[in-house]
Structure formats: C-alpha cells, structure tokens
Amino acid sequence: MAPQLRALRRRASLTLEAAAGAAGLSPAHLSRLETGQRQPSLPMLLALARIYSTTVSDLLGETVAERDAVMRAADTEPTAAGGWTYFQAGAPGRGMQALRVQVPHGSQGDIVRVHPGEEWLYVLKGRLRLRLGDSTHRLGPGDSAHFDSLTPHRIAAQDPDGVELLFVHTLLQSPTATLCLGPTPGETP
To answer: Are 113 and 180 in contact (CB under 8 A)?
Structure first.
C-alpha cells in the first residue's frame, strides 16, 4: 500500500506537506505511511482517499472489478472459530471486512486481543460485555462501539442466549486476518 500512497499523492500533484495538512497529519507521519513504516487507520485511509479523489480500495491496491459488491444471505456459509460463528457480510480479501458474528455465552470471554487496526461493532440481538483497556461497557441492541484494536479488548456475551453483532474491522497485520478476511483471489484456502 505504501508505494500506492506515494503514487496517488504525486498523481494529485500534491507535496508531502500539502497532502499531510489536508489529511490532518504531520508530514513526517505521512512520509512513514508512504514508506511502509506505519500502517494507516481507517479514518486516515478515508481522508487520503478523499484528498486523492479515489477509493479506499484503490489505496489498498485492490482490484474492485474482480469482486462482488453485494453479498447475498443465501450465499454465505458460516465459519466457526473459537466458539464464535462468523458470516461474511462483505467480499473476502479486502482490507476492511464486515462480518455478522454470533457469540455464545461463555465463549472466549477471557481472551484479550491486541492487534493493529480498528474495529466497529453494532449489537443486533442480546447484550454484550466489552472490555476496552481498564473500562468495561455493557451494550444492548442498537448500541455500537468504535475503537483502535491496539487497545486491549475483550468481547463476551452477557446473556445465556448469546449476542449477535455486526462487526467491521481492519486486520492489516493480525494473525487472524486470514480467518476473518478469507483467502485473497487466486489463493487456495
């Protein structure tokens, strides 16, 4: 992605200082993104895509023409992992992934996760206990949370019937990226 960021900035005829200022970044931070020394957050990607008049998919080097934009419920197969059930809610292989997740009561409640990226979740059914750093939050249907995944976090169903979530995340360097993102086109699972 780093070379793509630099190429798009140059194509837009913007200096490092001008692009960084428009994105709300320091020139040094944008330089680190362009050299691959840092990974951008989702808000950074969105700001840079707007400035360069392109899409986040283009920034990530994705070839959108090869992927379906629409996921039909009848075409999704559940994937079970660690007691949770994942349903793809977006095309696999993208840098930002949407999932519908069913979390049974008592599964993985003690696992603390920390990884690069961002997460956004929305409670569809049930009640969720979300631990972010030293804070515990209880979320019900219609509640949502958006956080940096480097914050130690823990997700658990509060009710015996479990919880169902919509979950959007960027797992740019996480070891669980293949599970959640699926194989990239042309790759065998």
So the answer is: no
Instruction: Report whether 79 contacts 141 (CB < 8 A).
Output: no
Reduced to 3 states, what is the DSSP secondary structure of residue 116?
coil
Judged by DSSP in three states, 10 sits in helix
**Cα–Cα dist 74/64, whole Å:** 22
Q: What does the block give as tokens for 12?
A: 């837009």
Distances (CA, A) of 102 to 6, 80, 107, 148: 40, 9, 10, 22
**Two structure tokens written together for 113:** 């996760």
pLDDT digits 0-9 by tens, 17-73: 998 998 888 999 989 888 888 888 878 888 888 888 887 777 776 654 455 666 676
pLDDT at 174: 44
Contact 116, 133 (CB under 8 A): no
In whole numbers, what is the pLDDT of the chain averaged over residues?
A: 79
